[in-house]
Structures are given as C-alpha cells and as structure tokens.
Design goal:
The protein is α+β, with helices and mostly antiparallel strands. Helices cover about 50% and strands about 10% of the residues. It has nine helices and five strands.
Length: about 200
C-alpha cells in the first residue's frame, strides 16, 4: 500500500526536476517496485484531475513530468518572461510529419520523400526543440539521424508516438504534390521514379 509520504516524495522529486524524468529513475529514487510506481503516478494524476489544481502530470514515453496546466498559461505569462512561441507552417508540418512517422530518418530521406531541399525546415524544427539528432546512420558519410523529442509530445498533447494518427495514400500523395509545387514544378513534372511516401 502506497503511503502519503511516498506520494509526497514523488511529487517533490518531480517538481524539483523541472523537466521530464525517466520513470525508472523515479522508481529507484523512491525504492519502489514497477507496479508500485504505476500506482503512485496513477494517484497523482487522479489528484490533479479531481481537485482545482494548477498542475498536471504528463506521461511522455518512458518519462514523467509535473507541469502547469495549459489553462493557466496566460496567467503565467503575466508574471514570467513570455515563453518562446513558434509558428508551424505547412512546410514545417510536412517535414515534421515525415520525421515523426519515419524516425530515425536522415535529411536525405526527408528530401527524397518531399522532393525538395529540407535544410531550412530541419534546422527550424531543431531550433524549436521538436526534433533532435538521434545518432548517425551506419552508411558512407555517416549522415545524422533525426527523431522527435519530448517537446513534440507535449506540443501535440500525446504521451507516445504510437498515439499519432495514421495516414492513407490520399493524404500522402497530397504531401508529395505540395512538395512538387513548392519546388516550382508542375505535379506532372516530377521524377519518373515512383515516390515511396507510403512507407511512412
């Protein structure tokens, strides 16, 4: 049975971290078993949801974080420096979708799918903290691999990339056609090779 002190200790640790913490580390810090840490986190979620609390508990893949509820962001802005905001244009969203569904993925893979240079889009998404380097591909030149971040999960309100919606052929073909238009070509002028966007 989880006691009140364990609950308070978990809350104190997560609050003090100020960022997403691996569940495994929290389990070790509290000297709990796997089933016990799940009980602690479930109880914290219930507390934050059932009471008029300004905090919420986020599950991000294998990490967990305490943060302010989105409903209170405007109140926070009044007393702290306004957080950095960014606009996800259609180009950035298309590039982000490719990274999210194909990760880990190289710049060349992204450009092959979109049909246009992706340096600007990738650099912007890295700057926004939505994607990051995930290592290098074991291939000539050892190109960088990119994948999504915890900030990506927070931004889209999901706990795991497995919660992302699936796309059909029509949506994927729309991505390809938009990329061709962006490159200043007519849709029919693209390379004769069939695009393999269906492997998202």
């Amino acid at each position: 049975m989880i006691n009140a002190r364990t609950m308070a200790a978990a809350e104190a640790i997560l609050f003090s971290m100020g960022k997403a913490m691996p569940v495994e580390e929290l389990t070790e810090a509290l000297k709990l078993e796997e089933n016990e840490i799940d009980e602690v986190l479930d109880k914290l979620v219930a507390q934050y949801e059932s009471e008029e609390r300004g905090l919420t508990l986020l599950r991000l893949e294998d990490k967990v974080q305490i943060c302010a509820k989105p409903a209170f962001y405007q109140d926070l802005i009044r007393v702290i420096k306004k957080p950095k905001t960014y606009e996800l244009t259609e180009i950035l969203m298309e590039t982000l979708a490719i990274v999210a569904y194909r990760q880990p993925v190289t710049r060349l893979d992204i450009e092959r799918i979109r049909g246009v240079n992706c340096d600007y889009a990738v650099n912007q998404l890295v700057e926004f903290g939505l994607i990051c380097e995930k290592g290098r591909l074991d291939a000539p030149g050892r190109p960088l691999l990119f994948g999504t971040t915890d900030e990506f999960l927070r931004h889209f309100g999901i706990s795991s990339v497995e919660e992302m919606p699936t796309f059909g052929r029509e949506e994927l073909e729309a991505f390809r056609q938009e990329a061709v238009r962006e490159a200043g070509e007519e849709p029919g002028d693209a390379s004769g090779e069939e695009d393999d966007t269906t492997v998202f």
